[in-house]
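Support request from a user on the community tier.

User writes: "When I paste my structure tokens into the form, the page sometimes reloads and wipes my input. The last time it worked, I copied everything first. Here is what I submitted, just in case something in the input itself triggers the reload:"
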């Protein structure tokens, strides 16, 4: 039996928790779907050994580094709301730059295809923004995606984030859509507090 992991955050339909050393298979399965990886690698799966040997150890090291407050978070469906309670639907991330200040963090998300189009990315991200700005003293959240990743851009727009930059990184092995560039969206604590409904 897997060890119980205390939730990091709960939303109406999702529980977010920290990953454990037992979770490699969840990440391997998520990254094995070409549709999930389309705008990340052009559809290539992440090699399982890379997940086991580098990716997962780095995730766990991040919890140590940021005192469990930031990092990659596994998302599961809550029992009361779904046909497949407890199912792993993907991950969210709140992470500073490697040597950057802790009050500027990146937001990211990667969900299994079966979970797309039901508002989960927006629901999880909104709760993370709220936690970042109200509990973690974060000042700025940014998110990057390929311009052509319209679903991801749409999530950022629904969160109230603003498009602040389009840039064209050099890639050795560009994927389809790279020519349209990457976009950066941002939201500050001030913008978050002025846009969200009063409690
Ligand atoms: C991007 C992603 C996280 C969106 O997750 P999701 O749970 O489906 O997102 P939501 O349902 O909260 O919102 C998506 C919105 O974009 C819209 N959308 C989705 N695909 C779209 C497309 N191709 N064109 C236009 N709009 C699109 C949806 O209709 C929805 O808007 P609505 O609520 O107004 O209908 C998910 O598709 C995913 O994990 N993709 C693979 C990994 C990835 O690309 N991650 C982002 C990398 S930066």
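"...and here is what came back when it finally went through:"
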């Amino acid at each position: 039996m897997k060890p119980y992991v205390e939730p990091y955050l709960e939303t109406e339909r999702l529980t977010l928790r920290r990953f454990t050393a037992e979770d490699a298979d969840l990440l391997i399965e998520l990254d094995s779907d070409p549709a999930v990886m389309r705008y990340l690698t052009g559809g290539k799966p992440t090699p399982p050994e890379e997940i086991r040997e580098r990716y997962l150890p780095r995730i766990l090291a991040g919890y140590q580094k940021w005192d469990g407050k930031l990092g990659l978070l596994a998302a599961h469906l809550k029992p009361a709301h779904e046909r497949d309670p407890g199912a792993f639907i993907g991950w969210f991330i709140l992470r500073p730059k490697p040597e950057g200040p802790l009050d500027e963090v990146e937001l990211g998300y990667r969900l299994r295809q079966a979970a797309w189009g039901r508002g989960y990315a927006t629901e999880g991200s909104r709760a993370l923004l709220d936690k970042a700005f109200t509990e973690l003293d974060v000042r700025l959240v940014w998110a990057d995606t390929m311009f052509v990743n319209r679903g991801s851009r749409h999530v950022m727009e629904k969160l109230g984030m603003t498009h602040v930059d389009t840039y064209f990184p050099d890639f050795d092995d560009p994927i389809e859509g790279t020519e349209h560039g990457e976009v950066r969206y941002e939201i500050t604590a001030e913008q978050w507090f002025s846009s969200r409904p009063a409690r």
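Agent notes: The reload is a front-end session timeout and is unrelated to the input. The chain has a mean pLDDT of 94. The first strand starts at residue 7 and ends at 10. Escalated to web team.
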